[in-house]
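Database export, one record per block. Field names are fixed; values are copied verbatim from the stored entry.
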Amino acid sequence: MIYLQLFWSFLQIGLFSIGGGYAAMPLIQAQVVEGYAWLSLNEFVDLITIAEMTPGPIAVNAATFVGLRIAGFGGAVVATIGCITPSLFLVSLLSYVYTRYKNLRVLQSVLSSLRPAVVALIASAGLTILLKVVFNGQAMALSSVDWVGVGLFAAALTALRRLKWNPILVMSLCGAAGLAIGVLTGQ
């Protein structure tokens, strides 16, 4: 039964995560945290971090991670297959349609209308993770602000947007800083 739940859950994520991995984050959260309670919100944030750090699409990495965590190797395979199955069929179909009808105004209008929705999905996922980082999963009060998280966020954002540093370098430096802070504070 768990295999069927994993497959169905990630099939839905794969089918409705239009816009890529970041757009899939709210869908993944709805399934694995709120729907089935396979992960806590803290574990979900860790999952997104791990999925972002590892090669490959975020949704597929998340499916593999959750499947492995819930039902071992078989669960990882089933969840991953569930996640990629819709893309396999939809991308093939859309590729044909786009190639054949790419100059139609109706198609261009539909694509233009989907862009704001995709941006909203990405912003929603980013806000959820940002609030988790800033308030460390606690009530939104000044006393619960994780100042180390805020500092690392600000430094990473500055390095990425203003200094145009390589994202891999920024992630590595933030990881190293977090390790150093953890060692120094005994956490």
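Remark 1: The radius of gyration is 19 Å.
Remark 2: Residues 2-137 form one domain.
End of record.
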